[in-house]
Design brief:
The complex is a heterodimer of chains A (about 240) and B (about 100).
Chain A lengths: L2 H4 L44 H9 L3 H23 L2 H18 L9 H20 L6 H5 L24 H9 L3 H12 L4 H8 L3 H28 L1
Helix pairs in contact in A: 2-3, 3-4, 3-5, 4-5, 5-9, 7-10, 8-10, 9-10
Chain B lengths: L2 H9 L3 H13 L8 H5 L1 H17 L10 H12 L2 H13 L1
The chains are: A mainly alpha (about 240), B mainly alpha (about 100).
Amino acid sequence: MTLTEQTKPGSRLTGETKRGIFKTSEVRLMAEPTQAKPMQHMRRNPPIAGEAEAIAKAQAGDAHAFETLYSLHKRRVYSLCLRMLGNVAEAEDLTQEAFLQLYRKIGTFRGDSAFSTWLHRLAVNVVLMHLRKKGLPQVSLEETLEPSQDDGPRKDIGERDLVLSGSIDRVALERAVENLPPGYRLVFVLHDVEGYEHNEIADMLSCSIGNSKSQLHKARMKLRDLLRSGQRKESIA
Amino acid sequence: MSSSRHQQDRDSMNCAEFQERLPELFESGANVSQESHVQGCENCSALVRDLEYIAAQAKLLLPIHDPSPTVWNNIQSAIRSTPEHKTVTASSGKRS
């Protein structure tokens, strides 16, 4: 018997799951206007051909359509999970959890935002929930987004040594991103790697657009610190 | 504040003031490298270059790769074991 004929995703769960309950305040939509384009930024989540039809069919219980949605979005969801966790097994577990939540909640998707943004918000919540379970069980989202003073970037006044431009490779940058505090890492990955706009990130993380911008700048500054210290170590060795 | 006054303020910024305003300048879409403070400050010029370089390099990080086929197999198994799936399966069996 196929899933196509037997299931009705979204028919049971509206705003709640066994493992992924979030307060309504954490999934509220932000009403702030879209801000000016950030530097050299290019949109990376354009509409996908056939996606709208697959969403409608999956909402009606078509398992083949759900599999199509999985195929279309698995790489980006998995990439987000892997970058946030740095561990293949955990990233696969959370990818699985994110798509199971999608299966349960797809009936609630109304198209108010792009599907990929909506799915990413769901995946981000799964990741944040996991991170809290691992080490920050009582910490609010705002605190998760704001690392401690020790983890933050420094102002760069009067340091005239290494310049990164042209000298870092993909591996070094990946490693530096892994070492960012989770809050910085999340905003950096969503904005600079995945191409989401600040208003979309604010929506996903239930923070203000200003907070998203501030976190991104701190993330880039911290990355610069990490990359420069890596270069210093290399030059000493 | 008039635009010329605004420009004067930007021209007279020191490093700390410039770096305080840097996120806003980046997000405004302005050509930050052409800011008067950057033109005259080697340190802030290097900072702007690095931050622009990091943002540009980040775009090259996608994609990683697909999750293993096990993930989809587990999703299918989990869906098949959901209560609503069993209910629908059972009622479907009675009808047939």
